[in-house]
Amino acid sequence: MPVYSYNTIREPAEGYFKDSGSRFLAFAFPVISEAEVKNQLQALRKKYFDARHQGYAYILGPDQKTWRAFDDGEPNHSTGDPILGQIKSRKLTNVLVVVVRYFGGTKLGVSGLIAAYRAAADDALSHAVIVARDVITTLNLEFDFSATPSVMKLIKDYQVTILEQAFTDKALMKLEVKLKVEEQVKERVALLKAMGSPIEISPGLERH
């Protein structure tokens, strides 16, 4: 079944946790691609170059099928997994959470690390504003100018956004459409075509 909407965070947020001298700086970012994840990680590594560890986790896509949890040298599953768990517990996606650790000289043990990374990630996400987003797709329209009134009514009725348009001997439009109304838009175009309107529709690329 298609996913029509998802929850994410509106803007970056930060959190903090301290235990036995170790400091855990947490950062949550809205992201939509692994390239964005990479850029955020590189920026943090540059800024906190003297930190001992930089564990992180992320989930991408409305279906939440793309994800990763990374321990960065800490004991297996002591870092990335508890961070990932905080993202999952809020049912979020398109989110990256990074926890930068400055070692305080006292080992915390695996259970202590799990608790610390979980608490830091929780603090960052607790400061984030959670928002619902519609899954967006794109459609391409090609039509004769005589069909313009019908096309503009369709755009208004389904709250469609015009991303690009060009005019030659015909009108060409690239439209941004909420996935939940995509089939209705296609049905409207098919009806217009059946009634004699010179109009064609083709799929574009899905946008999140």
Q: Termini, distance in Å?
A: 17 Å
Number of extended strands = 11
Shape, per Cα inertia axes:
elongated
Which CATH class of the largest domain applies here?
Alpha Beta
CATH superfamily caption of the largest domain: Impact, N-terminal domain
CATH architecture name of the largest domain: 2-Layer Sandwich
Rg on CA atoms, Å: 23 Å
Residue fraction in strands:
35-45%
Domain tally: 2
**Largest sheet, described in full?**
5 strands, antiparallel
The overall pLDDT average reads 94
Number of helices: 5
Task: Determine the fraction of residues in helical runs and give it as a percent range.
Answer: 25-40%
Low-pLDDT runs: none
Which structural category fits the helices and strands? alpha+beta
Order of helical and strand elements: EEEHEEHEHEEHEEHE
User: What is the CATH T-level topology of the largest domain?
Assistant: Ribosomal Protein S5, domain 2
Trace the largest sheet across and list its strands: 2-3-6-4-5
